[in-house]
Amino acid sequence: MARGKVYLVGAGPGDPELMTLKARRLLEQADVVLFDRLLDPRMMDTVRGEKIDVGKNAGRHKLSQEGINQLLIEKAGAGAMVVRLKGGDPYLFGRGGEEALALLEKGIPFEIVPGVTSSIAAPALAGIPVTHRGVASSLTIVTGHEEPGKEAPLDWKALAGLSGTLVVLMGVSRLKQNAAALMAAGKPADTPAAMVEKGGWKDQRMISATLGSIAEKARASKIESPAILVVGEV
Fold it and tell me: Could you tell me where the DSSP H helices lie in the chain?
């Protein structure tokens, strides 16, 4: 059978209406869809092909990243049109780059379909612009949950010295440590901060505090993943 093709598709922040038209069309046409832990099951309503749940929660993976890569290669190598559906954007902490490299190595055709990232959408949906005239003219996005043993960990001193807005993704479990690291590196404890939980969901909510108190308020409010931390004057 002729070799197929893989589409690495961003599903957006959660609301099915925030998916791109191209993403929805590809889901309808796909022979196989490998999907992450989705923010809304309605995203899969139009899928007629095979559905494979490869979702990842912190510490609980249905399939390793290497296993996902191999499955993409096998399905496309057998001639299938494959959609790899990811929350947000595939190239922003979505490991889409790793999947693209694996496909490239095996000569499997692939295409990237960008998605609306929660790092901008979740604050916006909660009423926070990540940039604002006269307040913040830059945006820095980092992961709050780095791989263990990483050779070049986040430089909290450099991050603390930046002006503008800081968005920390996937940092609920390490919120206290990350906030402490920022303050230890020189970020004032009274810097405004917010947590946006389930951005794009019907039960989205936001809490606001200061950098020094956001971890305790998040604990008291029982903030759970997925949630993002926003730090800055916006």
Answer: 21-29, 65-77, 96-105, 118-125, 156-160, 175-184, 214-220
- 29: tokens are 């046409």
Residues 183-214: tens digit of each pLDDT: 999 999 999 999 999 998 889 999 999 999 99
Smallest Cα–Cα separation from 6: which of 114, 62, 79?
Answer: 79
Backbone angles phi, psi at 17, to 5 degrees: -75, -10
Contact 195, 218 (CB under 8 A): yes
| Residue pLDDT, tens place only, 94-117 | 999 999 999 999 999 999 999 999
What global pTM score does this model have?
Answer: 0.89
Kindly state the tokens that stand for 167: 């968005």
Measuring CA to CA, how many Å separate 155 from each of 189, 191, 193, 208? 18, 19, 19, 25
Catalytic residues: 36, 56, 170
Beta strands in 77-154 (DSSP E): 81-86, 110-113, 139-143
What lies within 8 Å, CB to CB, of 133 at 6+ separation is none
